[in-house]
Amino acid sequence: MLKWPADGLLPLIVQHAISGKVLMQGYANSDALRQTLSTGHVTFFSRSKQRLWTKGESSGHFLKVQSLATDCDADSLLALALPEGPTCHVGTETCWHDNNANSPSLSFLTDLEAVIAARQHADPKSSYTASLFARGVKRIAQKVGEEGVESALAAMAGDREELKNEAADLIFHLLVLLRSQDLQLNDVIEVLKSRHQ
């Protein structure tokens, strides 16, 4: 049972469902919460406009709700969502503009996935990543194998610096391989989570 304050507004924090980045924060009344649940798009109560406001209603950059939760006191809400474009009205991914300082380190992998996706159909001469895609899945898979072996050899040699470098190459090439098969790191994470139960 939610604990609604006298003004009927609960803080609603929106977090990226994959990267974990905090995207924005607003307020929801019971009508905004109902609309969020029925449409699947994050809807707030705008205190300045004094009306319901669905993020993306004018820009088309909706926040697709994946799950909703309350805090331990049931007086604030957390929406895990997938953004359909920039979240902030100034065109940035989040409403917190110093993303690098405040982002979880692993969120860099989702940023890297976006770069890899952008280069998938680019001119092969424009980047190493684009050239990998142009050479096909066989070459990409071969690179994953090579980097895996090189990571194992670095570990066996006790060379921590080399292991970090080879592991970085392995993760990069694995992300390229996943993208070539229309998969994302989050698909792999879901498998790991299902095995952890």
UniProtKB/TrEMBL annotation:
Any one GO BP annotation for this protein: L-histidine biosynthetic process
Region feature (Phosphoribosyl-AMP cyclohydrolase): 1-108
Keywords annotated in UniProt: Amino-acid biosynthesis, ATP-binding, Cytoplasm, Histidine biosynthesis, Hydrolase, Multifunctional enzyme, Nucleotide-binding
Phosphoribosyl-ATP pyrophosphohydrolase: annotated segments: 109-197
Reactions accelerated catalytically: 1-(5-phospho-beta-D-ribosyl)-5'-AMP + H2O = 1-(5-phospho-beta-D-ribosyl)-5-[(5-phospho-beta-D-ribosylamino)methylideneamino]imidazole-4-carboxamide; 1-(5-phospho-beta-D-ribosyl)-ATP + H2O = 1-(5-phospho-beta-D-ribosyl)-5'-AMP + diphosphate + H(+)
Pathway field: Amino-acid biosynthesis; L-histidine biosynthesis; L-histidine from 5-phospho-alpha-D-ribose 1-diphosphate: step 3/9; Amino-acid biosynthesis; L-histidine biosynthesis; L-histidine from 5-phospho-alpha-D-ribose 1-diphosphate: step 2/9
Top EC class for this record: hydrolase
Protein EC: 3.5.4.19, 3.6.1.31
Main subcellular location: cytoplasm
Chain ranges of the Phosphoribosyl-AMP cyclohydrolase domain: 24-97
NCBIfam families, A to Z: histidine_hisI, PRK02759.1
Protein name, UniProt field: Histidine biosynthesis bifunctional protein HisIE
Gene of this entry: hisI
